[in-house]
């Protein structure tokens, strides 16, 4: 991966309005490399917003997202009473239109029970309006499986690092992602922080992420940055 790609790979894409305020930058705030705004949170429906292609952001590939992630920090209230939250993505055959698809499996335990609970769904990539279906923007539409088939949501990668190079935000070896979830009828808008390692990110990396999120122009993201809490992780499954 080139040095230019390393510099571009951290911020988000998936807004609904080209005139919406920009989010700051690459997690080391700079007006010269802005983040696109998050998905719109003004609607109470689960209808996904249309992502906008942003030339300053190189989204992570579906292949890079593949594998298991530990949710180490979040603003979503549902994770306050859960522990050992993990999300595993597996590649699926593209949709008939050519859109990328991922099998999405979330596992967790409650704070008081050893029982492992599972939520299964499918993520389908959300290309820009008028763009080719297989274009990768870092934005995804989720739909549940089984009895959750009536549920859907929209999420996007706000920032990411592959841990291969020191990038001013994380350190070598720390592979992480920051994701934004659009408000639905059942859940508020929120942010999750993923780490490949169960132990999570170093204190320094987390502080830089928190600081950068609090400095972006978007009011919703700034507010959510102040609500981040650590998701409990222990020796459970």
Give the key terms.
237 residues, eight-stranded antiparallel barrel, 4 helices, 9 strands, globular, disordered N terminus
Short structural summary:
Helices cover 13% and strands 28% of the residues.
Descriptive overview:
There is one protein chain. The protein is an alpha+beta fold and 237 residues long. 13% of the residues lie in helices and 28% in strands. The chain contains four helices and nine strands; from the N terminus they run ααββββββββααβ. β5 and β6 form a beta hairpin. Mean pLDDT is 77; it is low at 1-54.
Helix content: 10-25%
Average pLDDT score = 77
Distance between the termini: 34 Å
Major beta sheet, strand line-up: 1-2-3-4-5-6-7-8
Percentage of residues in strands: 25-35%
